[in-house]
């Protein structure tokens, strides 16, 4: 990396001397130092060297309305002056949290009219685990404790959330998963479908849920948790048969369904929630990321009315966070929802920009390095392979990371999940910015292929 700005090196030194980074290779980070991002506007970031970078990941899937929205800044400033902090414990409340709860309920599926706020998606999923077990205990079924998650699902990085997630590399550290959590196969046809056709594989993957319920025993299962579309796992869009089959199975058994909407929620599919897109009927939905467009941390759990009725009768719920429903975060959330609605951003995604992004992205399928391009709404994935026909991968060459580095150096952020390149740009990305994203992506695929042919 070039170093024109002397401050870059100073910041990189601070990183090595004082900072422990989330999800980073510590050895590599110590040697190379981080890229320093200093400012942002619209869909663009600038690093400390002055390079402009198109943010194909909306930060970490969260900056839905784009960077530099003055309304969100003003909402935070106003709320900080009025009431910078108070809590929601012990029978107190404040207007921003209550008004945001109503605003979220207004866009949530019918029959889901209550929200428990948290500081993050991970805290939301830890809340889910405690809430569903509390619910079943109140229903006189305290044995229903087991949560069924999926291999390669991502639900966050706290102990319960990481346990419900199925990331093997996370479970390897710190003795996870905790007891009472089991996992079934993921509906990842490209990677794991073998000789099955996608639709056949979708049915097979869904049937693993029923198998697991029968194995654990319906009386012991509290809930099934899943992302409508796996994000961190590699933008895994299930075969068309998967969700309908899962719905049939859920109908047969008395277990709760938790949709982790942290990525899909608030417009990423063109609908308010991924559950709306797929016609799912969740009992609980975890939210975060797009709720505040990432301008300030906030998450939560939207809960179906039948569950609320039961826990209302149960007296104390002994759970909460100092920053549950933080007034400044709630004010930003409200302003963010207002922008999404007033600027008709979902409508535009659905009818214009998502179809255009998906059309342009699929043009990359002809590239010799590309085994599949898939996507939906403002989500996309590009599978890098050695052999297009057999889906054979390059082994041991870290092709995804090579491609990611070329992207960075050429002014584009695409994330690598193994050898799957993924994108999730801000929902406000324009057609010409989509053109720029796709042409940069193609250039970086070329550079990656050249490097492989070295
Ligand atoms: C990011 C993410 C989480 C965790 O949210 P944090 O705010 O990072 O704790 C949970 N679920 C999904 C699907 C996510 O993508």
Automatic annotation (TrEMBL):
**Which prosthetic group or cofactor does it need?**
pyridoxal 5'-phosphate
GO terms (molecular function) for this protein are: transaminase activity
- Superkingdom of origin: Bacteria
Which InterPro entries does the UniProt record give?
Aminotrans_3, Aminotrans_3_PPA_site, PyrdxlP-dep_Trfase, PyrdxlP-dep_Trfase_major, PyrdxlP-dep_Trfase_small
The coiled-coil segments of this chain are none
Question: What keywords were assigned to this record?
Answer: Aminotransferase, Pyridoxal phosphate, Transferase
Q: Where is the signal peptide?
A: none
State the SUPFAM superfamilies in the record.
PLP-dependent transferases (SSF53383)
* Record carries keyword Magnesium: no
Q: Which PANTHER family match?
A: AMINOTRANSFERASE, AMINOTRANSFERASE CLASS-III
Protein name, as recorded: Aspartate aminotransferase family protein
What is the species listed in this Swiss-Prot or TrEMBL entry? Answer: Pseudomonas typographi
């Amino acid at each position: 990396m070039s170093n024109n700005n002397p401050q870059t090196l100073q910041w990189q030194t601070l990183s090595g001397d004082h900072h422990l980074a989330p999800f980073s290779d510590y050895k590599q980070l110590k040697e190379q130092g981080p890229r320093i991002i200093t400012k942002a506007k619209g869909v663009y970031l600038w690093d400390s060297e002055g390079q402009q970078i198109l943010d194909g990941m909306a930060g970490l899937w969260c900056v839905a309305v784009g960077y530099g929205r003055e309304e969100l800044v003003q909402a935070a400033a106003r709320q900080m002056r009025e009431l910078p902090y108070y809590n929601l414990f012990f029978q107190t409340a404040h207007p921003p949290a209550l008004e945001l709860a109503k605003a979220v309920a207004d866009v949530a599926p019918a029959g889901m009219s209550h929200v428990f706020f948290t500081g993050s998606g991970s805290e939301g999923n830890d809340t889910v685990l405690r809430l569903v077990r509390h619910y079943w205990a109140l229903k006189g079924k305290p044995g229903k404790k087991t949560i069924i998650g999926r291999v390669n699902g991502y639900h966050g990085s706290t102990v319960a959330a990481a346990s419900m997630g199925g990331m093997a590399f996370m479970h390897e550290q710190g003795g996870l998963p905790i007891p009472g959590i089991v996992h079934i196969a993921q509906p990842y046809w490209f990677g794991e479908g073998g000789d099955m056709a996608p639709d056949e594989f979708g049915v097979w993957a869904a049937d693993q849920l029923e198998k697991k319920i029968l194995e654990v025993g319906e009386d012991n299962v509290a809930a099934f948790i899943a992302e409508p579309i796996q994000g961190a796992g590699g933008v895994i869009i299930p075969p068309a048969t998967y969700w309908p089959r899962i719905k049939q199975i859920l109908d047969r058994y008395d277990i709760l369904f938790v949709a982790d909407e942290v990525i899909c929620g608030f417009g990423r599919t063109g609908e308010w929630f991924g559950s709306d897109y797929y016609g799912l009927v969740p009992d609980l939905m975890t939210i975060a990321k797009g709720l505040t467009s990432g301008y300030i941390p906030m998450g939560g759990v939207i809960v179906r009315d039948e569950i609320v009725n039961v826990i209302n009768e149960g007296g104390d719920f002994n759970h909460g966070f100092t920053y549950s429903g933080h007034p400044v975060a709630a004010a930003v959330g409200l302003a963010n929802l207002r922008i999404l609605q007033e600027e008709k951003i979902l409508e535009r995604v659905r009818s214009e920009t998502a179809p255009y992004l998906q059309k342009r992205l699929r043009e990359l399928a002809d590239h010799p390095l590309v085994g599949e391009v898939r996507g939906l709404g403002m989500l996309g994935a590009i599978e890098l392979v050695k052999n297009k026909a057999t889906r054979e991968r390059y082994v041991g060459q870290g092709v995804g990371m090579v491609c990611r580095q070329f992207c960075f150096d050429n002014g584009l952020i695409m994330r690598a999940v193994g050898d799957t390149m993924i994108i999730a740009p801000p929902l406000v990305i324009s057609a010409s910015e989509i053109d720029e994203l796709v042409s940069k992506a193609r250039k970086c695929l070329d550079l990656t292929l050249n490097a492989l042919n070295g």
